[in-house]
Fold each of these.
Amino acid sequence: MLDANGIRLAHIYARDDLHQTRFGQYHEHLTSDEARRIAKGIARLPEFMMQRKDFHSRGGGDFRWKRSRPYHVALADLYVREHWGFIDAVCKLNSIPFDGTGERIQREGTWCVYEFAVQLDAIQFWDRFEGRWLRGEEFIYPERPQGLPQLREPPDMYRFGRRPTGR
């Protein structure tokens, strides 16, 4: 697999003749479809790691805001109370930290603030749970980025009273 500059990033080997092998050997190799999906994911890593415009860190100011976790998203308190199990399950499944700051904002209801170290995690969380992006003390409303990967949802999400989103 080559990057945009023609530099080889990785070798991903696959075998499509696995139907002729014993079952035990099957798990040692990737199919060409699996290898293609992995290669596509590796090729998109720079895109996922880039800083997206309009999604700025919260900025300096309050001593409670950690420099190691500069991105803050607020969710409506009532929404969090009603969907706590589902939010927690989605975050665990996608390895996104679900860390509250303990800060509550009183503006058009009560909002709970969550902090993130990685911008992409914060953007995905903001998008999936219809949060508010924070910059300083203000809510900002950036446009949803093109090609944003969706968070995976638990296969037993009906247990949480949820229905497929269909997005």
Amino acid sequence: MSSTLNGQLLGRTHYATRAVLERELTRLGLTFGQSLLLNMLAAADGPVPRAEAARQLTDALKLSPAAAHTTLAELVAATLVAPMTQDASRVTVTPAGRQSQRLVAAATGEIGKRLWAGLAAEDLAAAARVLDAVRRRAEASLASAA
């Protein structure tokens, strides 16, 4: 049986793979949004302004700025992220946050290996190009409607 590449297939694939990840994130005590923000902050070269952290999460998950700030506050409350002592408008990942982020990265890597195993490199490259093009078009459409 062949599948047609369309929004329904993309959505079902996203939700299925995300559900696999969320099962592991639940075990780690994190939500999907928290893990994404934790990854973003851990990848930063240093402390990040709260507004910038929220903007990045808003852009990534297409959620409201208020929801992104709530997710950041949850990470602060969990002591995975902390405001800078000298400038509370900037946040950084704590040692506990770095450990959680490493566990998330390991889980994500294992899940990815398992789900993508056996697929040809050329197929993966073509899929990446197509998905990136569709994502860019959708983001441009959202930006033009704003």
Amino acid sequence: MKKILITGGCGFIGSNLAEYFLKKRYKVIVLDKYNFENSWGWLDKKKHKNLEIKLGDIRDYDFVNKCTLGVNSVIHLAALIGIPFSYVSPLAYIQTNIIGTYNILESCNVNKIKNLIVTSTSEVYGSSKYEPMDEKHPTFSQSPYAATKKSADELALSFFNSYDLPVKIIRPFNTYGPRQSPRAIIPNIAYQLLNKKIKKVKIGNLSPKRDYTYVGDLCEAFYKIHNSKKFGEIFNTGTNENITILELYNKIAKLLKIKKPLNVQRERKRKKKSEVNSLKCDNKKIYLHLKWKPKTKFNTGLKKTIKWIKNNQSIYKDIYNI
């Protein structure tokens, strides 16, 4: 049985991805952040005999190196991802997203890992210069988060060019689905609409456009990239469609059949120079080489996500999580 290490595997995308590979009959080892509660996030080891969870710190090279021993492939997801918090503590993002990625790259190089996927983000592109945005689109860091992810991507490609490390980069546009953090826009809007105590939906900028991919489709993209021999390549993943935050709010409200006034709050807005105004994926490359394209219609994915949020309202709080 092949062994795969997934860093950040207890989180939203990571847990969905871990379960996807378990269904494909892989032995899955998850590396995630040590916590005193010994929490495994969204994963339940009792349900999966081929799942192993190791808690530690992606910033600790010794720990990361031990985790990569004896595995066939690695998918690196572990990162700090909240853009507003990167304004507060950019150093934490440098240490986690850049140093953490270095630890993965160096460990995989030393231990002769044959297959490594590093997870990027469409935020490295900044506001679109043209749409749809392909892998040749210029990159421009409008937040410390974006800068650290761009740096991690460049570091990964440098290891491919300098050491022949078999690395590939997946660059997802926005992802949504069950288990997503309440700080993300879709669960945040849905929860506020569902909560009867909330009379107005608190929100930030309404005009930015985003391209949303359902998490199940993204897992399939990871799987196809994992099985490919396209090393040293970057692959965008997205739907080639985008909508504004206001349009997204109206769509969720319509599906829920709940309408509330909007309360646009200054603290929820990104600074003007830091706001990425529009992202729209061009997924031609991954379709051409790997025959991947999203299968889930946006309304279908939203219905699945909203159903999950309805059933898990107790995990959400009416506070602004940066």
